[in-house]
Amino acid sequence: MGCCDVPGLMPVETAIENILEQVNSTTTTSTVALADAMGLVLAQDILSPINVPPFANSAMDGYALRAEDLANTDTLILAGKSFAGVPFEGECQQGQCIRIMTGAEMPAGTDTVIMQEETSVDGDNITFNIKPKANDNVRPIGDDVSLGETVLVTGTRLTAREMPLLASLGIAELETYHRPKVAFFSTGDELRPVGETLEAGQIYDSNRYGIRALLEKFGCEVLDLGIIADCPEKLRDAFLKGSTEADVLITSGGVSVGEADYTKDILDQEGQIGFWKIAMKPGKPFAFGKINNAWFCGLPGNPVSAMLTLYQLVQPMLAKLAGNSQYQPPVRVKAKATTMFKKRPGRTDFQRGIYSINAEGQLEVATTGNQGSGAFSSMHLANCFVVLEQERGRVQAGEDVTIEIFNHTLY
After folding, report:
1. I need a labelling partner for 232 at 20 to 30 A (CA). Which of 43, 45, 364, 374 fits?
2. What is the distance between the alpha carbons of residues 224 and 205, in angstroms, rounded to a whole number?
3. Closest CA to 167 of 184, 151, 191, 186
4. CA distance 286 to 269
5. Residues 65, 92: contact at Cβ < 8 Å?
6. For residues 326 and 258, is the Cβ–Cβ distance under 8 A?
7. What is the pLDDT of residues 132-184, one digit of tens each?
8. Under 8 Å CB-to-CB from 84, ≥6 apart: which residues?
């Protein structure tokens, strides 16, 4: 009897909680240049060393002036220009205005900008078509970030949204946590590398390509150990290599405890097993444990199962291990099913779906078709998982379902 036939499966939510309770965040840090910090997790709070902007500046192209000067007149005399990086020198006097460009420093004596489209020009005489309020179209000092303000906190993973913010503060170096190093390999005598000719009973090893892609999206350092044959000695060597050179060891295949699956025996002898079966579909034969100083995650061999368990169960673990305290699980929302979804009660089902917004602005979702754990083309077609509750049965068109929109790691 394989593990997929054993009753008393652990709910998905319990499995995630179990993993996160055991895994501690890394404490290993290093100083890196800002240019090399993309995807890393901050090991320090970032307090702004400056005001941003450091001076009051114009929010648009136009004319800088005193708002009160237009109380009794519509026309002011042009006294100079202020460009970004080349400010006006001196002070704007009563009855005068300064031509100013977006981002340019506000000249002394001015408090307002009127956009150029609201003016007419006759030589140095500038006539204004509106009566402004003081401070219109002016960005004050520290309008974006104030000196000493906490901008980012420890545990923030740096993305394209944070990098220019840090650069705007003039921060050249950062203290960050080390990326988790993850070793992985596929098991199975039937597997062959891409590029080779398949013989009877053989298939290409596709899982390693999906695993590597996701791990790199998760921000991990990867160590690909290749394909390991169903041989106890070779598997043991791979387990020991991965578990001594990496923080996490991930295998694909060999966790359903069949006749040629030696993973459980090796873990019993060399490490420990936390749990071995999950109430999820696909992906029931997922294993979690530890070997040497490395955490072990055994993914099922079927390609959709491998990707799903890596995405649902291993992703939050790696985020915590990396020190990412700001990690948020993929967004789940309600949608109307436009097709039937087959399901039996007993496991939480993650079916591949295609969500869209109908003419009324409502979310709808349809199946991608074949939901087999070996049908990886369904992942290519999908943009979400349809998460069907553990005790729910068949879903008919028109029923409400929960969908989980793919996060950035699957795009």
Report:
1. 374
2. 13
3. 151
4. 19
5. yes
6. no
7. 999 999 999 999 999 999 999 999 999 999 999 999 999 999 999 999 999 99
8. 57, 101, 102, 103, 104
